Amino acid sequence: MEKILIIDDNNDICLLLERFLTKQGYKTASVQRGDDGIALLRKESFELVICDFKLPDIDGLEMLRRIKVMHPNTAVIIITGYSDVRIAVQTVKHGAYDYVTKPLYPDEILYTIKGALERRSQLLSQPKSSIQSNSAPSPKTSIAKVVSAKVSLAPDGKRFIFGKSRAAEQLQKHIDLIAPTDMSVIITGETGTGKEFVANAIHLKSKRADKPFVAIDCGALGKELAGSELFGHVKGSFTGAMSDKTGSFEFANGGTIFLDEIGNLSYDNQIKLLRVLQERKIRRIGSNQDIPVDVRIIVATNEDLREAVRQGKFREDIYHRIAEFEMHLSPLRERKADIMIFADHFLESANIQLEKEILGFDEEAKEKLKDYYWHGNLRELQNVVKRSVLLTQGDYIEADVLPNEIISPQYLTAEDTGAANLQISYDPARPGVPVFSQSAANLKSVSENAERVAILKVLEKTGYNKTKAAEVLNIDRKTLYNKLKAYDIHL
Fold first, then answer.
1. Do 271 and 190 share a structural domain?
2. Residue 64 CB contacts under 8 Å (≥ 6 apart), including other chains
3. CB under 8 Å, gap of 24 or more: what pairs does 465-471 form?
4. Which structural domain range is residue 194 located in?
5. C-alpha distances in angstroms, 96 versus 23, 49, 172, 267, 295?
6. How many CB atoms lie within 10 A of CB 456?
7. Is there a cis peptide before residue 431, judged by omega within 30 degrees of 0?
8. Same domain, 173 and 299
9. Which of the listed residues 283, 307, 329 is the one where a domain comes to its end?
10. pLDDT tens profile 340-349
């Protein structure tokens, strides 16, 4: 009998769904808070979770992410009161099978549930060894080219694609070396290079693989709520604390906690984190009782923490405690040998999610993908491939379904980039060899000037709407806020 967990703060919906699904032959359980759902999922597994998008304690996307980290094979359906395309895209992007809008209709929800469970069974029935098979692929398996990449299988069956470039090989060696230890790790790299993917790979190759892996986006934590999210709180400790809350460090006890964009933690929460690093104890907000925790800490950042330390924005004592081992992820544009490997991998995923059977990319599309700059790295590539799969009517993705910025890249002028200030002369003794003046900008500053100008132009065109600007720039809001801060852009 398949088990279904219902998470919704509306008790009536929980009761109705439980009664209806029980009559349909499913075993059900229900909770009204995200924390309670996570706690129950830590005790037992469910084939399917039906989760409300708006919960009183945890955002629906955060719930979806946590469920997929704990139980990658569990199907998830999101319930929402709003028929919003953006919500649909976000939920599917984060691994949901589908989403349904309120009011719920029995026939619709049952159809969606059966589809989700059937898709889950199909995925589980696929032989894991087929990924590494050297036999000739069926024409309808797009994607046999992934065989040429470095592929690892996690204990839960999840595939990790590393690529075949020199940078990819070095990355895999580092993961294999560091995973069996308990050393803290800093993962650096641009947004979208796969820092959480690498952290998860380290965890799943470690001795803690059977324990929780908890990922926290420090950039999305409000200053006031970060302490509660990380360390928990007791009932009544502050306005809105209606019940005790278990923090992420407690959830991760015995396993690994991944702190993404750690540089965004407030100074107060950095001090609390230092105590955890030193004493391996946490204290819930409003409590005077210490709770021992055994966690491995992996952090990630797309900024220079050493520079943040020099500027007094990040505590030096924390930096030295978490920097036992540092790994840098190269941007995708520097790993051209890996672009089509990842594109084929994302094509396979998109085929499954969109129920299509696209075979691959034509030669022109391949060349366009290889030549593009990939500002958003793997995340941008994944979005482009999924969009292309959706638009493709034939067997192969052609160049004309790719976004305009890939088909016809628009390069900024010297005036836009600030390169007009780059003064070049030539040494008569060495014809043809350029000599840059002392006042000339270096390549990094030219790139930064270009990025700053581009952001300002898009903000102006979108009426300084940050959400729309982030969409146009093909980055998330957190990244946009980080860049506004870095470039001293005040709105």
1. yes
2. 51, 76, 78, 91, 94, 95, 96
3. 466/491
4. 147-329
5. 25, 10, 29, 35, 28
6. 15
7. no
8. yes
9. 329
10. 999 998 998 8
